[in-house]
């Protein structure tokens, strides 16, 4: 691994080997998502607590202060929408020149294993890895399932993560599953971060799956809606950060969340 790749990965994954990535890229297929209508305003109070931010080039250019010294994971796939025929029909939407121009610490794209567009998204990943490796830029693969959330089983996720790693992804973002998540992580030779998925009913549910996923081998999270769509997003991200970087239990994280929410911390 060359110096540039090591340097970028060291900015994303902290010295303790853990990471809290904050995605605000949802608008690329959902439009002005609730609580993300003005991405810059949503991001600003959360930025100090994230290790890196995942977003598209349009939001980066127009909504993020260029003097902010926070690693950027640039979303470079898209071309579909919630009202379109199939979310899996993605293409690469951003060139390697643009990734470099915007000083991204990593590039990210989705793969849709088992879909009609499996081959297309997997070969897109391989091509992106080829381009990025030439410049020492890590690629994070996102094991997306589109609208088919029932696919989030350990067997399926383990398949997706291993394929992504085999094709050269340096980090894999995947969903948490209650049964067998350790098998997903154990079968993936690169670091795994947990995706959030749809917003949960309670914050305790989030703390529970983040803590359990960390115990089973994930290095951290890539959570969006379960942070910035909550009533108290700063309290939520600080509590999740405590699980990841300070070894808090889920209960301790929830206690911290309640204290911050009440203005005691």
Keywords for this entry:
alpha/beta, 10 strands, globular, single chain, 265 residues, TIM Barrel
Explain what you see.
Helices cover 42% and strands 15% of the residues. With 265 residues, the chain is an alpha/beta fold. It has one domain: Alpha-Beta Barrel (TIM Barrel). The strands form two sheets. Strands 1-2-3-6-7-8-9-10 form an eight-stranded parallel beta barrel, surrounded by six helices.
> What is the global morphology?
globular
> How many DSSP-defined strands?
10
* Low-confidence segments: none
Strands across the major sheet, in which order?
1-2-3-6-7-8-9-10
Query: What is the residue-mean pLDDT, rounded to a whole number?
Result: 96
How many distinct helices?
Answer: 12
What class do helices, strands and sheet pairing give?
A: alpha/beta
> What CATH architecture would you give?
Alpha-Beta Barrel
Residue fraction in strands:
15-25%
> What helical percentage do the residues reach?
40-55%
How is the CATH topology named?
Answer: TIM Barrel
Class, according to the CATH hierarchy? Alpha Beta
Largest sheet: 8 strands, parallel, barrel
Distance between the termini: 42 Å
SSE succession: HEHHEHEEEHEHEHEHEHEHHH
Query: How many individual domains?
Result: 1
